[in-house]
Design brief:
Largest sheet: 3 strands, mixed
Strand order of the largest sheet: 1-2-3
Distance between the termini: 26 Å
Helix content: 10-25%
Number of helices: 2
Strand content: 35-45%
Shape: elongated
Length: 79
């Protein structure tokens, strides 16, 4: 994974550190698949959760959501 793909570096707009995680949504029949990639770090937890919620907001009750975490390099549980 390159720095551009992982979000490493800084945001060109704000100069703030770029996110190290990516959440993408793909439609699948009766639901969606969320693909998580990169490093899931505790300081980004609120942003990751907000991404997941926003990508699932349009799903109707009872629709299926599958998670693909094969591209996750690390998970920081802040322990």
């Amino acid at each position: 994974m390159t720095a551009a793909q992982s979000g490493a570096g800084s945001s060109p707009d704000t100069g703030a550190p770029a996110r190290l995680s990516v959440v993408e949504r793909v439609e699948e029949g009766d639901g969606a698949k969320l693909t998580l990639r990169g490093r899931l770090l505790f300081p980004e937890a609120a942003h990751i959760w907000a991404d997941v919620k926003s990508r699932c907001a349009s799903l109707e009750k009872g629709h299926r959501v599958s998670l693909d975490m094969a591209g996750v390099e690390a998970v920081d549980g802040c322990t």
